[in-house]
Design a protein that fits this description.
Elements: H1 2-7, H2 9-35, H3 45-55, H4 71-99, E1 106-115, E2 119-126, E3 130-131, E4 139-143, E5 151-155, E6 165-168, E7 173-181, E8 184-193
Antiparallel strand pairs: 1-2, 1-8, 3-4, 4-5, 5-6, 7-8
Helix pairs in contact: 2-3
Length: 195
């Protein structure tokens, strides 16, 4: 027994750490559902540790057990297709971005998207990033060149082939009427919040 443990000590430790990561990731999912907010796990680490643990043993064929870490198949079947879809959406704004030479730029400010009076979402401001909300028929992007005012690029219907319309910001906000959100035609207000 001691000979087995000493021979495979590193593999046992790596495997144990991998199992701990997997348990932590699964508990983060349940905690997120319980608390009603996203609690991040540590993706891939459990699978990587289990893969390395079996790679260091004669039982290399058991490396496939790294797929017990649900974040690996989730990445393959969810994240990659979402990234492909996002690139397709991003291309729809590309002509506007290049025509007006809008560059990608990051600001340490939050931006609030408000649909009507009740629904609002807040996120970090990133220029040339396309915002595609699940229940919204429109696609949005915020554009800006250094020293120039912000512009809201808007495609009212994501299923159409329409070009984006540009709505200038007045101060720190821009608004557009008749944006379909959850089946209702509402006014969208986009506001940049100074922190």
């Amino acid at each position: 027994m001691n000979e087995f443990v000493s021979k495979y000590c590193v593999s046992i430790i790596l495997g144990f750490i991998g199992v701990l990561y997997i348990v932590f990731n699964i508990s983060a999912v349940f905690a997120s559902k319980k608390e009603g907010r996203f609690i991040s796990g540590i993706p891939f680490m459990g699978g990587v540790h289990i893969f390395l643990a079996f790679l260091l043993t004669p039982l290399k064929w058991l490396c496939f057990l790294c797929l017990l870490d649900y974040t690996i198949p989730m990445f393959l079947f969810t994240f990659i297709p979402e990234m492909i879809d996002y690139q397709k959406v991003q291309r729809r704004f590309k002509r506007v971005f290049s025509k007006y030479k809008y560059k990608g730029e990051y600001e340490q400010k939050n931006i609030e998207f408000k649909f009507g009076e009740n629904e609002s979402f807040e996120m970090r401001l990133l220029y040339r990033y396309v915002y595609a909300f699940t229940d919204c028929a429109a696609l949005l992007a915020i554009c800006k060149n250094k020293g120039e005012p912000r512009v809201l690029a808007l495609i009212r219907d994501k299923t159409s082939g329409n070009e984006p319309e540009l709505i200038p910001f007045e101060g720190d906000s821009a608004s557009a009427d008749d944006i379909v959100f959850k089946g209702e035609s509402l006014t969208l207000t986009v506001k940049v919040k100074n922190e």
